[in-house]
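To whoever is on call:

I kicked off a structure prediction for a single chain this morning and the downstream step that reads the tokens threw a length-mismatch warning. I double-checked the sequence; it's 116 residues and nothing unusual in it as far as I can see. Pasting both halves so you can look.
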Amino acid sequence: QVRLVESGGGLVQAGGSLRLSCAASGSIFSITSMGWYRQAPGKQRELVATITRYGNTDYADSVKGRFTIARNNAENTVYLQMNSLKPDDTAVYYCNAETSPVARYWGQGTQVTVSS
């Protein structure tokens, strides 16, 4: 079992920055990748960024060049540095973990609101 707890969301003005954190606990040795997803009002949940246990990253086209995903293995934590934020980035951001054997875990989400 893996537990994920997000933090760092909040209100920010367009052009500003936020840093989200996701702390993993439990069977963390089984995690193969972690990532961030978001769901805006009236929209489907979408992938924002992922990072594997080896450090390989992938980003949605909408956030490339603005967001950076990183990890701190010692603290079992993944981060999402969000720069040049836009109102369209407003959403609930969810941390995700994939494990082997195959399973998926989700955090409870943290609200990010970007004002214009």
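Update from on-call: the warning came from a stale cache, not from the record. Cleared it. Sanity check on the structure: The chain has a mean pLDDT of 95.
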